[in-house]
Amino acid sequence: EGDVFKYYTDGEWKKSASGKSVAIINPTTRTTQYKVQACTQEEVNKVMESAKIAQKQWAKTPLWKRAELLHKAAAILKEHKAPIAECLVVRSGDLISYCAEEGVRILGEGKFLVSDSFPGNERTKYCLSSKIPLGVVLAIPPFNYPVNLAVSKIGPALIAGNSLVLKPPTQGAVACLHMVQCFHLAGFPKGLISCVTGKGSEIGDFLTMHPGVNCISFTGGDTGVAISKKAGMVPLQMELGGKDACIVLEDADLDLVAANIIKGGFSYSGQRCTAVKVVLVMESVADALVEKVNAKVAKLKVGPPEDNCDITPVVSESSANFIEGLAKDAKAKGATFCQEYKREGNLVWPLLLDNVRPDMRIAWEEPFGPIVPVIRINSIEEGIHHCNASNFGLQGCVFTKDINKAILISDAMETGTVQINSAPARGPDHFPFQGLKDSGIGSQGITNSINMMTKIKSTVINLP
Ligand code: G3H
C-alpha cells in the first residue's frame, strides 16, 4: 500500500478508507506505473463539506492576498519542475500568475448605474454591482494536459474567491497530485483545494451531480456531453472534442502549410483537441502539398517518450484500437495510404491519408492519434461546407496570402476560433478559447474563465 499516492483533503494527504486503489497504466509498457487512492462517496462528501466552509472564509480574504498566494503557488510550481515535465510547468506557472494579475484588475472593478437612463425613471436609484464567487468549483481536466488544464481552472476559480475540488484524469493523476502539492506548500487555507482520485464508476456521477457543487469546468471527450445532461442548475464550462479543419487555398505558402500540418496534426501524437484533424486542400495544389507533408512525416522519430520521440504510444489500448478502426475503414473505402499502416501495442506510426471522401469515418471522427486525412476540394465553398457539416466546431485554420479571402472564410467557418496561416491552438492562454456545437459550452481563456466563475451581485440604493 506504501506506493499508492495519497489524495488531498482538508490540507492533508490521506489514504482512502476504501483500502482500494486505481492503477495507472504506462502507455508504452502497458503495465501499472502508479497507483492512486480509490476514494469513496463518503470521502467526496467530506471534501465538499470542507470546500464549502473554506470558500466562505476565502471570499472574505482580500483580493490582493488571494493573488499573493497564487503568485507563490506559481513560483513553487516552477521550482518543482522535476517530478512534472518541465515544459508543461513553465506554461502553467505563468498561467497562474496571469490569473492573479488579471483577477486583481477585473475583480477590482465594479459598476455604478443610475436609474434615470431607463424611460419613466427619475434619478432615485443607484445601483452598485460587483462580481462575487460562485462557491465550490469542480474541475475535471483531461489526460492530455493534466497539469495545464487543471491550473487553467484552479487559477481563475481561486482568484475569484471560489474553493476548488479537483478530480484528475486517471492517466495523468500523479502529475496532478504533484501540482496540488505546490498549492499545499504555498499555504492555501485548509479545504480550499482538494484533490480526489478514484474510479469514475464510483465517484464520477456522484461528484458531478453533488448538491455541493456550484460550477463545473470540464475538459475531455464524450463524458462532457453526459455530464451536461446530468448536471443540475450550475454554470458549465465545457471543452470537448474537435475536428479542426485546415483549409488550403491555391496561393498558400505550401512549405508553411506542410510545417503546420506536421505541428498541428502530429505533435503529441495527435492527442490534442485542437489538432489538425482534416486537411481540405484545393485539388490544384494537393499533389505538391501531400509530397511536402510526406517528406516531413518520414523524418518523424517514432518510439517511447523517454527517447524524446515525436510520435509516442497513445494513451491507451482502446484508443489505439479506435485509431486502427478508422484506418481500416478508410482502407476498405479506398483512401490512399501515404505511409504503410503500422502499430505495435499502443504505438501507432504517423499516417497521412490522401483522397479521403465523406463516406469514410475518418472524414468526420476525431482519431486523437497520429492520423491525418486529406480531402481534395474543388472550391472554397466545398471546404467551408465540409467544415460546417461537422458536429464539432472548436477551431479551424485557413492558409492563403489573400487576407480578404481569409477573413471571409473565417467568418463563414462555424468554429469558435479560426487561425489564419497557422495551425489551431488554444494559447496564448489569455486568448478566448471556445467551441461551437458539440465542441463545448461557454468560453475559456483566463479573463473569460474568471468571469464565468463569478456572478454579478447588485446593491440598489433607493433615495427618498
Ligand atoms: O487538448 C486540448 C487542449 O486545450 C489543446 O491545447 O492547443 O495548447 O494544445 P493546445
Query: Total number of helical segments?
Result: 13
Q: In which range does the helix fraction lie?
A: 25-40%
Structural class: alpha/beta
Low-confidence spans: pLDDT under 50, at least 5 residues?
none
Ligands, ions, cofactors: glyceraldehyde-3-phosphate
The gross shape turns out to be globular
Give the neighbour order of strands across the main sheet: 15-18-19-14-13-21-22
Determine the strand fraction and express it as a percent band. 15-25%
Main beta-sheet strand count, sense and barrel state: 7 strands, mixed
Q: How far do the termini sit from each other?
A: 69 Å
How many extended strands? Answer: 27
Q: What is Rg?
A: 24 Å
Pfam families: Aldedh (PF00171)
Domain Aldehyde dehydrogenase: 13-458
Catalytic activity: D-glyceraldehyde 3-phosphate + NADP(+) + H2O = (2R)-3-phosphoglycerate + NADPH + 2 H(+)
GO molecular function, one term: lactaldehyde dehydrogenase (NAD+) activity
Structure description:
The protein contains 13 helices and 27 strands. The mean pLDDT is 96. By secondary structure, it is of the alpha/beta class. It is globular and about 75 Å long. Bound molecules: glyceraldehyde-3-phosphate (G3H). The site of glyceraldehyde-3-phosphate has 9 residues, from loops. Residues 13-458 form the Aldehyde dehydrogenase domain. Keywords: Cytoplasm, NADP, Oxidoreductase. This is NADP-dependent glyceraldehyde-3-phosphate dehydrogenase. Its EC number is 1.2.1.9.
